[in-house]
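Figure 6 in text form: structure in, sequence out.
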């Protein structure tokens, strides 16, 4: 049994308990982070802790720990769970209080962390690409906050899975926003397009790395949303997330994207991404 961290203590996962009055359980009142761990080292930890603070600020919630305390706790949890490659979750809720929409006063947040073995990205997804379907973006108006309230994302992913696809690409007001659990990219005439950082998308940490690598290597990239029509004319489509890295989407709504194979721009970015991962390990 893996250890987890809960409110200042490390304990076996099956012994960790949270009150039924926790606002995370009753109201979905919390935020979270997912951090990939490679060979015992957290990837882009500072950026993830900064985004956690950004999400906490976005929902007016106190950070239960300083960045240094998070780092120390995370290092211990990763070591307790055997190092290697892990996916690490941090969850913070507004704490335990009698049920009420109004924020409780003087209540400590609940802080929880767990890590599991990182599932390697299936090689066939990189060789052949994945399938996606388009769906209406039914989420709320603050998708820049990484909230634990994931019911819309869950409904969208389930619908994609039932359609035989691995991801849903979301359309809002005629524009592609992002995936149900990923940022999205479109390549048109050699330029990469990804939605700008605003309240319609999560500011993905993997997205930041992709942008940095593209710009450093002279690959044209614009932080600009594409229309649904442009999406359907794309030469390449990709998705990115911390645990899936950058994956090519080669089938959209049962039609081939470009020539139906992972494209040359994705291959270049994936190579740079793998090099970057190794260089900071
Ligand atoms: C809706 C959404 N957008 C984007 C991402 C990608 O973010 P990151 O690269 O930080 O994992 C995720 C990751 O889970 C997500 O759920």
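Output sequence:
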């Amino acid at each position: 049994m893996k250890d987890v961290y809960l409110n200042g203590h490390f304990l076996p996962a099956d012994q960790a308990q949270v009150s039924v009055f926790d606002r995370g359980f009753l109201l979905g009142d919390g935020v979270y982070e997912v951090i990939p761990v490679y060979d015992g080292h957290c990837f882009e930890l500072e950026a993830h802790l900064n985004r956690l603070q950004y999400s906490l600020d976005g929902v007016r919630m106190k950070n239960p720990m300083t960045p240094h305390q998070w780092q120390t706790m995370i290092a211990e949890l990763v070591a307790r769970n055997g190092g290697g490659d892990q996916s690490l979750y941090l969850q913070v809720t507004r704490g335990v209080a009698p049920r009420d929409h109004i924020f409780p006063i003087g209540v400590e947040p609940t802080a929880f962390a767990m890590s599991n073995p990182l599932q390697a990205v299936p090689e066939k997804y990189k060789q052949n690409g994945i399938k996606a379907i388009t769906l209406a973006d039914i989420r709320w108006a603050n998708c820049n906050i990484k909230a634990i309230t994931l019911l819309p994302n869950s409904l969208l992913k389930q619908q994609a899975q039932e359609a035989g696809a691995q991801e849903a690409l979301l359309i809002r007001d005629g524009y592609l926003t992002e995936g149900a659990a990923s940022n999205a990219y479109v390549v048109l005439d050699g330029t990469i397009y990804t939605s700008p950082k605003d309240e319609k998308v999560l500011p993905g940490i993997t997205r930041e790395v992709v942008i940095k690598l593209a710009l450093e290597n002279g690959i044209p990239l614009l932080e600009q949303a594409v229309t649904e029509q442009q999406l359907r004319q794309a030469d390449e489509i990709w998705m990115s997330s911390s645990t899936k890295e950058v994956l090519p989407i080669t089938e959209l709504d049962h039609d081939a994207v470009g020539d139906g194979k992972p494209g040359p721009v994705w291959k270049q970015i994936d190579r740079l991404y793998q090099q970057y991962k190794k260089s900071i390990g």
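Caption detail: The longest helix spans residues 264-280.
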